[in-house]
Amino acid sequence: MASRLHELRTARLLLRRWRASDREDFAALNADPEVMRYFPSTMDREASDALVDRIEQHFDTEGWGFWALEVRSTGQFIGFTGLNSVPDDLPVDGDVEVGWRLAAQAWHQGYATEAAHAAVLAGFTQLGLSEIVSFTALANAPSRAVMRRIGMSEEREFDHPRIPPGHELRRHVLYRRRPDPAVP
Question: What is the 3-state secondary structure (H, E, C) of 115-153?
Fold first, then answer.
């Protein structure tokens, strides 16, 4: 996968590399308990900035990653959507995941589905991926709905090794999609 995908466009969205000006809004998003309700905890500014640094490092290494998500008509940063290498410590067979995290004010407008669909298609058509996975806490019905809308199929449940036993978010579900030449 030598391709470099620094930017994607949809009808309403720009998926792009991160800017320094995104960090403050991203930190606010990561500190919002509602946005982070399906994660073990919120993130402080330092942890949020470290995540952006890891995302940008992935772009530098792989040429693609979790893009900053911007509404084209306003230029407003609303979160991220994109592709990421699946961490080695997860019991998930699949090399690349699609994921997203949007600010609460961007929910219920179809942005996650629109951006995730674009990321998946780019993964298949421009990066030549043979499959893409996604996973979330079993209780995360909104993200599971996005996974289904972008053509992913539920495969199996697993316990997330970074979440302690007994924690309500430990149980996760894995979705997978392979390219279908008949369906764009």
Answer: HHHHHHHHHHHCCCCCCEEEEEECCCHHHHHHHHHCCCE
Lookup: tokens for 74: 């306003």
Find out whether 18 and 6 touch, Cβ atoms under 8 Å: no
Pick the closest to residue 146 from 101, 178, 112, 98 (CA basis). Answer: 112
CATH number of residue 35's parent domain? 3.40.630.30
The residue written with tokens 């994607």 in the block is 8
**Number of folded domains in the chain?**
1
Domain holding 157, by residue range, is 7-177
Identify whether 31 is part of a domain.
yes
pLDDT tens-digit profile of 6-41? 899 999 999 999 999 999 999 999 999 999 999 999
Per-residue pLDDT reduced to its tens digit, 127-154? 999 999 999 999 999 999 999 999 999 9
